[in-house]
Automatic annotation (TrEMBL):
It holds the Pfam family Peptidase_S24. Residues 127-197 form the Peptidase S24/S26A/S26B/S26C domain. Gene3D superfamilies: Umud Fragment, subunit A. It comes from the Bacteria. This is XRE family transcriptional regulator. It comes from Phenylobacterium terrae. InterPro entries: Cro/C1-type_HTH, Lambda_DNA-bd_dom_sf, LexA/Signal_pep-like_sf, Peptidase_S24_S26A/B/C. CDD domains: HTH_XRE, Peptidase_S24_S26.
């Protein structure tokens, strides 16, 4: 009876092996990268299969250096893989292709350099055609203040009926890229462009128009912009 009590106590008091928390993220990353098994991943990446299997099973921890190796192979962030910090992967980025705003005379401008100097994270639902404009000045106060980011899809297609009545990004046949409310003109192919604080422009011929997909306020825009370099 005494031996039985000792056996029961030993069974109850001995904790089960603890699976390392990074193991689940490692398995998740491996599957997302397209490797069906741990052995397949190890073989493709030139790792010791037994050592990798131990890490993914959670029987042993992997250090920061090894986490960097795994993260690079599976295209995830090392911080996430090692410690669960932040998102699993970096967001895609959109180029900031120019500035839209007001010059000293009050006219809206669009300016762009030879190549994007800044990048901004893609907003939800964006595609690889997403681009952004940075607002300069107060010509769109209330819609997009000085320093805000305006995103749109750079598809270069003609205006569509669902754009009428909405603020969109347009390019005129005079090479101006503007942010305006799009209204129907006096005849097909012509449009009126309504501003927030300037006279409307009537019967303008447009090369293309694009829906605005996101507007990021100035404070947040300053935090998320990165140099294209």
């Amino acid at each position: 009876m005494s031996a039985m009590r000792v056996l029961i106590a030993s069974t109850v008091d001995t904790p089960a092996p603890c699976r390392r928390p990074g193991a689940a993220r490692l398995r998740q990353a491996r599957i997302a990268a397209g490797f069906e098994t741990a052995e397949q991943a190890a073989g493709a990446c030139g790792w010791d299969a037994a050592a990798y299997a131990v890490h993914e099973a959670g029987a042993a921890s992997f250090d920061w250096r090894r986490a960097k190796v795994y993260a690079s192979a599976f295209r995830v962030r090392t911080e996430w893989l090692y410690a669960g910090a932040g998102p699993a992967s970096d967001p895609g980025f959109a180029p900031v292709i120019g500035r839209v705003g007001a010059d000293p005379s009050g006219a809206l401008l669009f300016a762009t350099g030879q190549s994007p100097g800044e990048l901004a994270p893609l907003p939800p639902g964006a595609t690889d055609r997403a681009v952004a404009l940075r607002v300069a000045g107060e010509s769109m106060r209330g819609l997009a203040d000085d320093g805000a980011l305006i995103y749109f899809e750079d598809q270069r297609t003609p205006p569509t009926p669902d754009m009428l009545g909405h603020v969109v990004v347009v390019e005129t046949d005079g090479d101006e890229v503007l942010v305006k409310r799009l209204l129907r003109g006096s005849r097909p192919g012509l449009y009126d462009l309504e501003s927030l604080d300037a006279p409307a422009r009537s019967d303008v011929r447009l090369r293309w128009a694009a829906h605005i997909t996101a507007i990021i306020p100035p404070f947040q825009a300053r935090r998320i912009l990165v140099s294209a370099a």
